[in-house]
Write a structure and sequence with these properties.
The chain is an alpha/beta fold. It has two domains: 288 residues, Quinone Oxidoreductase, Chain A, domain 1 (Alpha-Beta Complex), CATH 3.90.180; 132 residues, 3-Layer(aba) Sandwich (Rossmann fold). It is 34% helix and 20% strand. The chain is built from 16 helices and 20 strands. Strands 3, 5, 6, 11, 12, 19 and 20 form a seven-stranded mixed sheet that branches. The chain is globular, with a radius of gyration of 22 Å. The structure holds nicotinamide-adenine-dinucleotide and zinc ion (2 copies). Pfam families: ADH_N, ADH_zinc_N.
Length: 457
């Protein structure tokens, strides 16, 4: 390749500081060093973890950076001594690497990799070194992947080679959300044929969890979401029943217990809300019920009565669906090509890298009401983008914004009511309501999960 061994100048969306729009800049991407490959990114999803880093400001040393960790691309060149990859290989970068050598990689019990963690600066969410510079400054590589760039350099232990027949604009979703939800059901919960499952939260992760339960042979899959618009989509992935917690005056765990003669065999929390995590656990049947936490939050501790576990329930967590990246991602790509898992159905928007801030806004605003994290996809080849579709979306958005805001407040009030009734009976929640109503719509959507739980601050 003509560019091999040379610095590549290309476009990337740089996050110079927290809470500010990303800036499309020309960056320099250095050639790959030993054990590295340089990848031309073809398509990337936008995931909530990117947003958490940008907006929740928990990694103060993590800027400037290039976000993005759910992508697919083509190897442009390889570093000295690299034989595992060749230019032209189709690949998916992995935020959960697999060195295949460390004690974690050698254990079938986990998908974590000690070597990969050791190479990361956790306070910055990026590796110790970066191949990116912009305007003379080093720019960090978020999660070691940095896929909001036309080119990136990734350690070979964090790259999965995939089938050359794979359409990159679809399989990019396997870089995070879809493997996460699907694997949580199949690998972590180990859903059994004939079982009854409940999936809480029907974003991309939850819908993929529904698909995982179905693929594992569950006979009944109860989809739980506060947004009824999600239910039709959940059916596409195999949901058999729907429960909207807002339609009930009693704890959701009680509703599910009544529907299932004592509780579900498996529950999966795909919201990222500690109150829902507790409800999901309590929705499991005593004796053998398994509840898996998939949703992510770092803002609150969770709680449950010990008797829940003493009575025989198991509470587990799942990272990237328990998949070891190099093994699991190509297998999921094959499953997609063999039509055993769906991907196309998750995608609702195609946009260009230049529209990255709009994609982030869509994700923030739509968090509760329209769509899920991964289904906003940036096509870095630009060819497939559709400005008119995008304008329509924006138009719909602004037309409905006030209503959605009101609806959001209603939903949140409903949730807080439910939550308080569950824990404290009918207490007055006036103060929290007022706080929620005073929130700007933008703020509300950005933090809806937290507000929707019990906080409201
Ligand atoms: N564990 C991992 O490896 C991993 C990887 C990726 C994402 N995640 C996390 O998974 C979670 C889900 O991601 P997503 O992209 O699907 O999110 P999303 O925001 O698109 O979907 C969340 C869904 O939960 C619903 N919801 C909100 N409050 C609810 C409540 N009280 N009860 C029932 N449903 C409720 C919303 O209406 C929405 O449909 C996030 O927390 C994300 O950070 C975890
Ligand atoms: Zn992600
Ligand atoms: Zn390892």
């Amino acid at each position: 390749m003509a560019t091999a061994g040379k610095v590549i100048k290309c476009k990337a969306a740089v996050a110079w500081e927290p809470n500010k729009p990303l800036v499309i800049e020309e960056i320099e991407v250095a050639p790959p060093q030993a054990n590295e490959v340089r990848i031309k990114i073809v398509a990337t999803g936008v995931c909530h973890s990117d947003l958490y880093h940008l907006l929740e400001n928990m990694h103060e040393d993590g800027f400037p950076t290039v976000l993005g960790h759910e992508a697919a691309g083509i190897v442009e060149s390889v570093g000295p001594g690299v034989t595992e990859f060749q230019p032209g290989d189709k690949v998916i970068p992995l935020f959960i690497a697999q060195c295949r050598e460390c004690r974690f990689c050698r254990s079938p019990k986990t998908n974590q990799c000690e070597k990969a963690w050791a190479a990361m600066r956790s306070n910055a969410m990026s590796p110790l070194d970066s191949r990116f510079t912009c305007k003379g400054k080093k720019v960090l590589q978020f999660m070691g992947t940095s896929t909001f760039s036309e080119y990136t350099v990734v350690n070979t232990m964090a790259v999965a080679k995939i089938d050359p027949a794979a359409p990159l604009d679809k399989v990019c979703l396997l870089g995070c959300g879809i493997c996460t939800g699907f694997g949580a059901a199949v690998n972590t919960a180990k859903v059994e044929p004939g079982s009854t499952c409940a999936v809480f939260g029907l974003g991309a992760v939850g819908l993929a969890a529904v698909m995982g339960c179905k693929s594992a042979g569950a006979k009944r899959i109860i989809a739980v979401d506060v947004n009824p618009d999600k239910f039709e989509k959940a059916k596409v992935f195999g949901a058999t029943d729907f429960v909207n917690p807002k339609d009930h005056n009693k704890p959701i765990s009680q509703v599910l217990a009544e529907m299932t003669n004592g509780g579900v065999d498996y529950s999966l929390e795909c919201v990222g809300n500690v109150t829902v995590m507790r409800s999901a656990l309590e929705s499991c049947i005593q004796g053998w019920g398994v509840s898996v936490i998939v949703g992510w939050t770092n803002l609150d501790d969770f709680a449950a009565r010990p008797i829940q576990l003493i009575a025989g329930r198991t509470w587990k967590g799942s990272l990237f669906g328990g998949f070891k990246g190099k093994d699991g991602v190509p297998a999921m790509v094959k499953a997609y090509l063999d039509k055993k898992v769906k991907l196309d159905e998750f995608i609702t928007h195609n946009m260009t890298l230049d529209q990255i801030n709009d994609a982030i806004e869509l994700m923030k605003h739509a968090k509760w009401f329209n769509r899920s994290e991964q289904d906003c996809m940036l096509d870095l080849n630009c060819a497939a983008s559709s400005p008119s579709c995008y304008v329509t979306l924006l138009h719909e958005k602004s037309g409905n914004q006030g209503n959605q805001g009101d609806e959001a407040v209603k939903n949140i009030n409903g949730l807080i009511n439910d939550t308080f009734q569950q824990f404290f009976g009918n207490v007055t929640i006036f103060v929290i309501r007022i706080k929620c109503q005073n929130l700007e719509w933008q703020q509300l959507s950005g933090h809806s999960s937290d507000c929707g739980g019990i906080r409201g601050d």
